[in-house]
Design goal:
alpha/beta, Rossmann fold, six-stranded parallel sheet, 9 helices, binds adenosine-5'-triphosphate, binds nicotinate mononucleotide, pyridine nucleotide biosynthesis, Probable nicotinate-nucleotide adenylyltransferase, nucleotidyltransferase, nicotinate-nucleotide adenylyltransferase activity
């Protein structure tokens, strides 16, 4: 039976922390493939469920870059790895993105595969707030990976995940990369480099599409390696 990893994320932008997590899980769980799935409408990042409702300052949410830009950056970042691919299932589905739909769609595309959903320690803590979370564990194995700044141990998680069915989640320590999309966006907005935090092609895509530049930014945006 084929073993397929599923790396879901908003990928705004995709960075080397995402790629190392996928690569490490692929190696440790002998996966045949890892499918990266950029979110369509990441409702928790946008301040809650709600179709076309705009993010508000009160909810602490922010606008997310267009799905096509996030999709293309994910394609660019994964292109050189023959075991990595990118799925459009979440960006082509209307409405809020729920992992339960992602996994149902991938199951019907790969009926004979076993799915392994990869998630960082931060996302894992909130999994019980996800839509139809009980069903998730019938559709896939869950692999929780370590992330700098977040605790990943069974005891700590038990506080958050007391109701989680047994044997549905495995935890994996991976090389620590203290990179977040938030930090990459903030760097790009203020003209600090994102080289080596994201793949080279993604640096160039951010510059070409002028992503993350605030209207008031007076900096030249993304700089070349070694540039001041
Ligand atoms: N540096 C990292 N190490 C391990 N896992 C990570 C890392 N960065 C993100 N992840 C995991 O990758 C998945 C997708 O993350 P996401 O696209 O939200 O990136 P992010 O860096 O957390 O973004 P943002 O800063 O905008 O919240 C989540 O499961 C998250 O926990
Ligand atoms: O199913 C849900 O309700 C749900 C709520 C929040 C996040 N997720 C998924 O978790 C993954 C990481 O999401 P994010 O927002 O941290 O990039 C991605 O695949 C999301 O679709 C899923």
């Amino acid at each position: 039976m084929r073993r397929i990893g599923v790396m879901g994320g908003t990928f705004d932008p995709i960075h080397n922390g995402h790629l190392v997590a996928a690569s490490e899980v692929a190696h440790r769980f002998r996966l045949d493939e890892v499918v990266f799935v950029p979110t369509g409408r990441p409702w928790q990042k946008l301040g809650g469920p709600g179709g076309d409702s705009a993010p508000t300052a009160e909810s602490g949410s922010r606008p997310v870059s267009p799905a096509e830009d996030r999709y293309l950056m994910t394609v660019i970042a994964t292109a050189s790895n023959p075991r990595f691919s990118v799925s459009r299932v979440d960006i082509d589905r209307a409405g809020d993105t729920y992992t339960v739909d992602t996994l149902r769609d991938l199951k019907s595309l790969h009926p004979n595969a076993e799915l392994y959903f990869i998630t960082g320690a931060d996302a894992l803590e909130s999994i019980l707030s996800w839509q139809n979370w009980e069903e998730l564990f019938e559709l896939a194995n869950f692999i929780g990976v370590s992330r700098p700044g977040y605790v990943l141990d069974a005891k700590h998680l038990a506080k958050h995940l007391t109701t989680l069915p047994e044997d549905t989640l495995q935890l994996l320590e991976i090389p620590a990369l203290a990179i977040s999309s938030t930090e990459c966006r903030s760097r790009a907005a203020s003209g600090r480099p994102v080289w080596y935090l994201v793949p080279d092609g993604v640096v160039q895509y951010i510059a070409k599409r002028r992503l993350y530049r605030t209207p008031r930014a007076s900096s030249p945006g993304v700089s070349a390696p070694g540039a001041p």
